[in-house]
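Internal tracking record. Fields below are filled automatically when a chain is submitted to the structure queue. Please do not edit lines marked as system-generated. If the sequence contains nonstandard residues, flag them in the REMARKS field before resubmitting.
Queue: standard
Priority: normal
Entity type: single polypeptide chain
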Amino acid sequence: MPVSVEAGLVYGHVRYQATFARTPAGLSWVARHGQSDSSFAETNAGLTAQGYRLSFHHRFDTEGMVRNQAIWVR
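SYSTEM-GENERATED OUTPUT FOLLOWS
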């Protein structure tokens, strides 16, 4: 499962880098990247309602556009 996701601009393109670890037995996870603030808020509310908790969140700005990466676990 991804435990962190970083993003940045490389030669004018958004690039992502993820760090992975073994997923413990019985653990479910969901990852999203490149979401706007409003999409992130909607996804977070929906997954929280399903019993997931936010375990990682990274927010960054690329040329005036704010994007979010996040990982939820249950």
